[in-house]
Amino acid sequence: MNPSENLHKERMTIVVPVFNRPALIVRCLESLRSQTYRPLHVIVVDNDSTDDTLSVVEKWKKDMEVDDDFTMEIISESLPGAAYARQTGLQTVSTDKVMYFDSDDVMRPGCVSEVMSAWSVDPDADIVAWPVVIHHEGHPVVTHSIQGDILERHLVHALLRTQGYAVKTSFIRECGGWRGDFPVWNDFETGVRLLLNNPKIVAIREPLVDVYPQAESITGLSFSSKHGKWEKSLLGIDGSISRSGRHDSSRLHGIVNYRRAILAAHYAREGHEEFASPLYRQALQAVPKEKRPLIRFAYHWTRLGMRGAFSIIGRLL
Fold it and tell me: Are 264 and 238 contacting, i.e. CB atoms less than 8 angstroms apart?
């Protein structure tokens, strides 16, 4: 592409937090540089890495940043956790729109172009969102599409994954940005706050990103290893729902308690009944008596290794 063609195009910022990913961060950055859209500005936030990640990023920047159409900034955040790093990145953003990305993952070449095309069709949109492909143990799974009651679907399926949407910078700032006091499910929690503010959303149907879960990531691949932290995020979501004053808050709280039951079932499947039992009791006690059979069903269904409990009970919850 001729650089002169980009003189009047809007720049997109992509914020990438990174902690101890010297090999994976290069794959991630290469996928950003391969974007067909220009101009781009990438902000890498080193989250106090203890290996040579920072030097790897600095070398990549020196070798690959060659023109004004693809610029890169490296900053640091010493407080541990991706949410702190993302919030530090947000404070640095100067463009009208921002995307967040994880150092483990790969952005398909047309991603930013598709996003900006969607905004050109509907400039009033607050969020542009899309599904992603999760590659878990060699089995790729496409996440749920952005449609229907998006807040409800996000509470159940976490639709607004970090790698699955772009947002107007002013909007995410108005919603409070990223909260570092939630070390897990922080994209889930942030997505709830965004959706409680009734954004206008444009959905792209095709997946634009490939996600590669890592065992040593912030959330990891098990639930029991982060016992207590998931619960804290759910409590924070309950608080945001209560403060929203929505007419359907009782139903939304019910879905959060459904999530508690599912989490308890995962604890039980991982052999930690001491974590599962109190959380399951909490979920039961928090819903009206007539709805407790639905929570029991969700718990036992999931504990057996089955999926999709909400598709069976959701309308009744």
Answer: no
Cross-strand bridge partners of residue 167: 98, 127
Residues 6+ apart with CB under 8 A from 174: 197
CA distance 209 to 143: 11
Strand bridging mode 70-76 / 97-100: unpaired
For 228-257, the pLDDT digits (tens) are: 999 999 999 999 999 999 999 999 999 999
d(CA 201, CA 195): 9
For residue 39, is the peptide bond before it cis, meaning its omega torsion is within 30 degrees of 0? yes
Q: In DSSP terms, which residues pair with 211 in a beta bridge?
A: 134
pTM of the predicted model, to two decimals?
0.92
> Of 284, 38, 127, 256, nearest to 248 (Cα)?
256
**What's the pLDDT tens digit per position in 93-115?**
999 999 999 999 999 999 999 99
